[in-house]
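REQUEST ID: PR-0412
SUBMITTED BY: lab tech R.K.
PRIORITY: routine
TASK: structure prediction, single protein chain
INPUT:
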Amino acid sequence: MRKPLRIHLDRTLCDGFGICAKHAPGYFSLDDWGYACLIGDGSVPEADRDDVMRALMDCPVHAIMELDERRPDDVPPPLNGDADPAEHLKTEANEAEWGFTR
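STATUS: complete
OUTPUT:
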């Protein structure tokens, strides 16, 4: 069984294409200016998963995301607890490795 789907709509990214409301009208509506609004709390039952995922995948500006999904511009996950974070610092001693230029 798949984990329950939870979505989030970032309205600051929305450009008002309306594709989400076309694919999943039970979860997305358009405001007076044509921008998307999320209906409900973002919980999606299994029966509606395909329609909502279609809306998520077809959004041209990626304004819809699955909660717990990582985006490329997110902060990287913390380092493994066994590793010393200081080993990865850029210093003068390892400037050739990091490509420092003076």
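NOTES: The two ends are 55 Å apart (CA to CA).
REVIEWED BY: pending
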